[in-house]
Amino acid sequence: MLRRYIPVLFFSLFLITHTAAAIETVHVLVLPFEIHASQSLSYLTEDIPKVIKEHLQTEGAVPVEIDQAQAAAALAVTSDVDTLKQFGLNIGADSVIWGSMTRIGNDISLDINMVETVGTKPVFSVYESGSGMENLRAVAKKSAEKLARQLFRRELITGVRVTGNKRIEADAIERVIRVKTGDVLRAGELSKDLKNIYKMGYFEDIRVEAEESEGGKLI
Length: 219
Known about the structure:
Elements lengths: L7 E8 L10 E5 L3 E3 L7 H15 L2 E3 L4 H8 L5 H10 L4 E10 L2 E10 L7 E8 L4 H16 L3 E9 L6 H5 L12 H12 L8 E2 L2 E3 L2 E3 L1
Parallel strand pairs: 1-9, 2-4, 2-5, 3-5
Antiparallel strand pairs: 1-8, 1-11, 5-6, 6-7, 10-11
Helix pairs in contact: 1-4
């Protein structure tokens, strides 16, 4: 049996201002929200993400749907951003959104976090508050507007490198990689390439690693 080796994929990326950002497809995973309130408001666990997804869809985003078991697994690792990013990448999400709603008396607030599954950008956080449960939808929509502005900042792939391979030549791996220089960076496409490389049967672990470089990112 062939021994298995671990490759590391590197994609050289640079930050750009993309004039067509608003029409680019972005896949977003919105997790169920935590609810902190003295009353039983468990229905908001799904209702708040629904409002956020509806607004992001009007901006051109595509929600990534997962089952309850997957949602529970993702929520369990929200304190470990790197693990959460890998979870999102594996299911084809460009960004993962999670958060909580707090009600104290008549005051309500939303604490929301969003992280890109590829790259080293820090977690983007949004805080919005209001008064009265009747205004919760408006507070959620205002939060979603801020998320959308951050979400549609797109990047291009300026190069592709493969390193760490020992058993098979890099050009053989490159032949199954579909992303190419000039493509808009999408986690879904990276996810497909990871699967294609796994199917080659030589590797147990394939990683996409990123670090900031002058003018952009090196992945």
